[in-house]
Amino acid sequence: MAKRWETFKNKEIIDFANKEYYIDIITNLEVFKKNVKSILFTANIKNENETRVSVNTAFYLARAGFKVLLLDMDFRKRRLSNLLIGNAELNGVTDYFSENLPINDVLYETEIFNIHFIPSGRTKSTAVDLLNRNYLKMLINGLEDIYDYIIINCAPMSFCSDAMLLSSICNGTVLVTKSNFVRRDIVLDNLNILRKSSNEFLGIILNSVDMKEATYGSFGKYKNFGKY
Questions:
Q1: Quick one: pLDDT at residue 218?
Q2: Could you tell me which residues come within 8 angstroms of residue 58 by beta carbon, excluding any fewer than 6 positions away?
Q3: Which residue from 78, 143, 191, 223 has the highest number of Cβ atoms inside 10 Å of its Cβ?
């Protein structure tokens, strides 16, 4: 049984104003991506709000009746853990492997019905270390048997190769991109990398979009998975 821990202390985490856009994302998943259960969320550079996007995607999936796991695999900055639990030091992914802990010792219930959470962990590690030993693949495969969706958050691509590595073991990958914030060539380079490394590249979620300029034409032929 998952442990109970106070999460979502910051009530502003949930984006009710853009509810319809998250519903569109969920609809796309359900209609077009029926076999996608584990989804990696990453960004190009810092401050693109990919962590909040991943949390809100999980929230609206849970509200739609799906059982969802939020999994923090940002082993450097632990952004998802910081957003949900602040500075609390909880056992998580890296401790599960390094100390051979039972899965229930790193699994936490949240106040949101249908959402569980696994922090990144207290023990220092990297995705490279864990992937080289197939640990993460075995963990995610096992969790896919329990949850309808696993929403995975990792560091932006500019910081490390974790996203490229993790995309190879998740069912699908999403690149969160802040409108008019990242240079076009950086986004296109990251798109090419993820298209090659991912089991399935689901597309871009554009955020902070000025709806008066909703075309965001500089992305050319690249189709958006969602925008808000």
A1: 36
A2: 68, 70, 115, 149, 151
A3: 78
pLDDT of residue 4: 60
User: What whole-number distance in Å separates Cα of residue 30 and Cα of residue 212?
Assistant: 29
Q: Sign of torsion, CA 30 35 38 40?
A: negative
- Model pTM greater than 0.70? yes
Rounded to whole angstroms, the Cα distance separating 196 from 211 reads 31
Residue 77's DSSP bridge partners are none
Q: In Å, how far from its chain's centre is CA 82? A: 14
Point out the residues of the chain with pLDDT beneath 50: 215-223, 227-228
Tell me what pLDDT residue 144 has: 93
Cα of first residue to Cα of last residue in the chain, in angstroms, is 36
24 contact partners, CB below 8 Å, separation of at least 6: 226
Q: Report the alpha-carbon angle 119-125-126, nearest 5.
A: 95
